[in-house]
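hey so u asked for the seq, here:
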Amino acid sequence: MTKDSIEQLPEILKKHICTLKKVSLDEEHHESMCESQLAVVDFDRIPQEYARGRGWRCVPKSNDALYIDKDGIWYFVEFKNGKINGSDVYRKIYDSFLMLMDLGIISGLDFLRKQVQYILVYNSDKNGPVPTSENLEKIYSHTLIQAETEARLFDIWKLEQYLFRETHTYTKELFEEKFIQPMEQAEAL
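ran it, structure tokens below
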């Protein structure tokens, strides 16, 4: 995120700025899913602050990162280095939106549908679309490239236009190519 984007954030988000590398860290395996130094909101830190003093029995779940590009498009990013639990992903999405709406940061569903994209970054070694062999994975990837499309995995695509402007499921490598590199280039201008 650019300095201008960060300065426009509400205080609850602004104080949780860190790098994409930091939010992608899988603490259990001591492994980051990317090395990018792009500034993002560490959205995992928002639920504790949001729930503080409310006396709730549970704390909301959240997406890992929020990035806002220079054109004002929001990107929620969720990193999954291990097994992907669809209901957990959906819960993080809904809780994140409810917090943003309750805090008055976004106005409602119209904003989400027009301004927000969702990216699930997964470790293809653990959650590949074709888990049977490396060669089948290469064939699958080649087919997607030839078709000029991207994989639509883990039912995230169902939320496109319903909740999000766009949805994406990327391997770590595709995330680098399709998101990190373009955003780093855009910020360098």
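The CA atoms of residues 6 and 31 lie 27 Å apart. The chain has a mean pLDDT of 85.
lmk if thats what u needed
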